[in-house]
Amino acid sequence: MEFFFNLVPLIPLLPLLAFAVIVLFTHRKNRLSSNIAIGGIALSTLISWGVVLATILGGEHVQVEGWQLPVPWLPTGTTVFSVGFAVDGFTAAMLFMVPFVCAMIFIYSQGYMNLGQPNQDPRYARFFAYISLFAAGMLGLVVADNLLLLFISWELMGLCSYLLIGFWSFRNRDTEQHIDEAQVKRARAAALKAFITTRIGDVLLFAGIALLYSYTGSLNFREIFRPETLEHLQEISLLGQPAVTVIALLAFGGAVGKSAQFPLHVWLPDAMEGPTPVSALIHAATMVAAGVYLVARTLPLFIAGFEVAHAPALQWVAVIGAITAFFGATIGLAQDDIKRVLAYSTISQLGYMMMGLGLGSLVAGIFHLLTHAFFKALLFLGSGSVIHGMEHGHHKVAHHSDHHAQDDFNANDMKVMGGLRHKMPRTFWPYMAGTLALVGIVPFAGFWSKDEILAEAFHLFQESGSLSLPFWVWLAGTLGAFITALYMGRQIALVFWGEPRHEAASHAHESPNSMTVPLMILAVFALIGGFANAPFLGSFLHHFMGEVHEASEVVHSAAVPFSLAVAGISTLAALLGLLSGWAIYRNYRAGQVEPFQRWLGPVFILLRNKYYVDELYHLVFIQPAVWLADQVFNFDNRWVVDPLVNLVGTIGRVASEITRVFDTVAVDSWMVEGTAKAFNGLGDALRHTQTGRVQNYLLVVSVTVLLLLGLYMAFL
Amino acid sequence: MNFPFLTLITFIPLAAVVIVALIPGNREREIKWFSVVVSLIPLVLSVWVWVLFQPGGGMQFLEEAVWIPTLNAYYRMGVDGISIPLVFLTALLTTLSLFYSAYTIKVRVKEFFLLFLLLEMGMIGVFVALDLVLFYVFWEVGLVPMFLLIGIWGQPKDRPQYSAIKFFLFTLVGSVAMLLAFIAVYLTTGTWNMLEIPSLGPLAGAPGLAVAAFWAIFLAFAIKVPMWPVHTWLPDAHTAAPTAGSVILAGVLLKLGGYGMIRILLPFFPAQFKLFAPYIGVIALISMIYGALVSMAQWDLKRLIAYSSVSHMGYFTLGIVAAAASLDVSDPALTSRAIALNGAVLQMFNHGIITGGLFFLVGVIYERTHTRDLKAFGGLSVKLPIFYGVMLMTGLASLGLPGLAGFISEFLVFRGAFHIMPVYAIIGIIAIVLTAAYILWKVIQNVFLGEFSEEKWSAIFDPEHWHFSLDMDRFEVITMAPLLFFMLLVGIYPAPILNVINAASTALLSSL
């Protein structure tokens, strides 16, 4: 089985190759292109699962120590910088999930982008190229043995998210009708927003990496997590803090951007403007998971030098996570777009993962990352299937009545759906599995992973015995669980129950097999995925990856015992929320003011508008930046710098003009010509002395001699 | 005496100038293709030099001969790992520019190609000269052809005369200051030999004069780089210059200033450079952020790229400042110093291929539409998908996306700067965010994304003056291909180029 480790570099390279082949050679052949993409990711999945198996069989030796392949890359002064690949238990756990979920999404995309249908997307092949590159980025990130390769992959994903969120950001107005002008505008703005917002986090991470590298001379995970290196980093003081804490917080800044944590979460809901498989890719298997992965991978930096409960960097992670978990969930209550509800749910669930990591538990955070990837991919793909069905229904209606040009039908709007469980059963049942997993109902996957995070918090709270941070984290998590259940109850009631509230919903029909089969497969994982770390099955994941940070001597992993009280409270909250949400919205009718709005009034408006964070940022950051740019431009070109340059030029010209005048008037006409004239006049005057008579000359000579003699005598 | 590689690389363009001068002006085809083919010789030779070069072996391919005995001036040439990439860059960009111009230059063909070859000689001469007199002569030789290229082939609406004179005067002011400083250096050391002067301690006995000489030389190079606030000649010169002129201007001429800082200013006056590093660092930061902000406010595509050069060359300055600021700091900083200097040198090379490429790409759209107004475009990725792909990749390289060249040099500069002057580095990273904003928002969004309509396109497209294919024509793709290749190569595997740079900068720094 060791053989599989030699194939590790291929895991990211195969999708990368698929990207290159599609872009360079096959981009005109749609079916071939998508087959190449699917083939690439399928092979990656096979190799990955081989690696996972080899890691399991390799025992503690491989799971903790890991396997490495360094490649010399960059000469730096007297040293050489290597980048390479590594696999340990943590990586293997990620490798189980990432390529597989990607593969499901790829297969689904064939159907979603209408391969072979008359309404096939005009840039179908390009789509598969981009998602292949996206997968390559995430896989490269997971198998990197150092922060630089991680960062390269990280940014590659940033690029792909830009390209894919903006996949519909341009069109030929005259020939392309699969998207409309408003959608083009939204996609264009959303893509830019995603890139720039995450870029803010990225430069913080960039700074952290540069600092770490300059203090330790290495970015290799194994080297920077050596106890002596960590100690060295604690001793250096930077801005009044131990350098290690500053670096950890900068890295967390990167994670906040990428994993859409408050306050950089704003890009994620807008990322819905991409095709739905992209949303699934971003929200489940790749992009947002990267931030959580980064924090988990660099966890020793967050703790080094402190007790786990009092490490300031770690506390930041926990606090931001808790805020995000709660705050994201509340916004989800008031959204009408089926995908936006899920988007805020993702933000909130990412908050849970950060909470887990922030409590110092690697396994709790990652366990939730893994289960969430499966059920969130399922929910997104399911919502895509619903939207697809609605669009078909709309097409059918529009075809008959011929009035679709005027109506502003929005296939994502839950308010126009209703009763779809009868029309789309093969979408409905998997969707329910995903919902139960997200809400956290026993025995679905989300129950186990969410419970572990809450149990961790509760355990620390009991240990400290005071209403300190872990208590608030637990409280936010439990309340968040209730709200999560509430908005999911609302969603399934609005989408699948009640009566169709639009003709499109009554004419909706089931999606093709290429879309529903991946849903079913993912549903299986949503059901059983939690057993990977279920306490009654021996907490397998804990043994498998729990000890990868042991060598750093700062992260210690011990599974927190299962607590019936914690599980009971959160399950109760979840059940209560789900049932009440469902009961309240089950009979919602078109045109009604919705119940939450009636009861919550202005609070609901606040939630619907996402606490006005976007508006605030626009006012505080974007407008001033644009204004400043304009002012600097004016300063440069109109007001100061260039006018000064021109002034110097003008002074030069004026001075030269003055000189010219001086030259022609004073020098030339007065002095030069004046001198000439003077001599001329003198000559004229003296001409009269030239009489030509000898006696006159003789007289002058005699008088002169006499005068000189007289002078001589007088002065002697 | 070994094979005179450097003399040949420098003067083959001059020989070509003579031959072009002899070809009758109406034989345009012959003039064009002769120039392109001849320019391949220095290119091949420069690759050859790179291959033969021994990293860690100091100055190589040395040539020396008495030149002007009464002045004590020698003909001295040589290259090390800092100059080799720049010589190669010059030869490469010249060939590409000539090739591109063979298709796009329609008026006064003979003069254009003649001047361009003359320009190449001047630029390469600066990078290989090891004698201050020779250096100065080449420095000035390059000035005249560029002045004429801007003035004659500029678009009338872009005020070419104004721009050309502005360019000329700015550079000349610096040159005069530099010449005086060189003479002062000569008077105290008795030699023009650039390799010997550092060890003789120029102007060591007159600290006040040394400071004056430092700033005089700094001014000359700062104008060329260009640094804020002596940068305003650049956007005007770029806007007016023909495409190939802009490419060379951004790709090579700016590097003359950067190269001078590393080859002359730093080794001649290390103590002064260290003393003033904090101030020059501030100028570097202003250039980075200010340049990026002005780019963000532009609606003229070419001016936008021009200002981005101010910003990107600020990274270079930050790198060299970091290296200078840590001189004679204890040993562990040597690595940071070397990394910062490596970053600075690589940044010059990368800026050359990336921004050179961007100016070609501006040319691509300008030749078709005769406008650079960002508001006039929109949705062009529908009509020009290859152009979109190439522009996107070049733009991403420019904004420092990992995996492409720009990132490596930015990373090295910041890696060095963070250790040596952390506050500067922290402020500097603002520029990275701004760069992403103006490339993606201003350039990509306005030109390529959004709604495409035939109506809007036909308002700007000028089919009468465009006889090639609508999307990037084969000749344009061939022009860009080598640049894209190097963006990828340096981004993915920088070792080949960094090996030579690193050896030279380590040697340079440990000699100070």
Query: Which secondary-structure class do the elements of chain A indicate?
Result: mainly alpha
Number of strands of chain B: 3
Our Rg estimate of chain A from Cα atoms comes to 38 Å
Q: Give the overall silhouette of chain B.
A: globular
Strand composition percent of chain A: under 5%
Total DSSP helices of chain A: 29
Order of helices and strands of chain B: HHEEHHHHHHHHHHHHHHHHEHHH
* Sheet with most strands of chain A: 2 strands, antiparallel
Shape of chain A: elongated
How many distinct beta strands of chain A? 5
Low-confidence stretches of chain B: none
Biggest sheet of chain B, open or closed, and with what strands and sense? 2 strands, antiparallel
Trace the largest sheet of chain B across and list its strands: 1-2
* Averaged pLDDT of chain A: 86
* Structural class by helix and strand composition of chain B: mainly alpha
In whole angstroms, how far apart are the ends of chain B?
30 Å
Strand order of the largest sheet of chain A: 1-2
Provide structural commentary.
The complex is a heterodimer of chains A (716) and B (512). By secondary structure, chain A is mainly alpha-helical. Chain A is 72% helix and 4% strand. In chain A, the strands form 2 sheets. In chain A, strands 1-2 form a two-stranded antiparallel ribbon. In chain A, strands 4-5 form a two-stranded antiparallel ribbon. The longest helix of chain A has 47 residues, at 641-687. With 512 residues, chain B is mainly α. Chain B has a domain at 279-512. Chain B has helices at residues 5-22, 28-52, 83-104, 109-128, 132-141, 143-153, 160-189, 197-200, 207-224, 233-240, 243-268, 270-296, 301-325, 332-369, 380-383, 385-398, 405-420, 422-448, 454-460, 474-492, 495-510, and strands spanning 60-68, 73-79, 450-452. In chain B, strands 1-2 form a two-stranded antiparallel sheet. In chain B, a hairpin with a 4-residue loop joins strand 1 and strand 2 (73-79). Chain B starts with a helix and ends with a helix. The model of chain B has no long low-confidence stretch (mean pLDDT 90). The chains are: A mainly alpha (716), B mainly alpha (512). The interface between A and B is large, with 57 and 63 residues. Strand 3 (170-172) of chain A pairs parallel with strand 3 (450-452) of chain B, so a sheet runs across the interface.
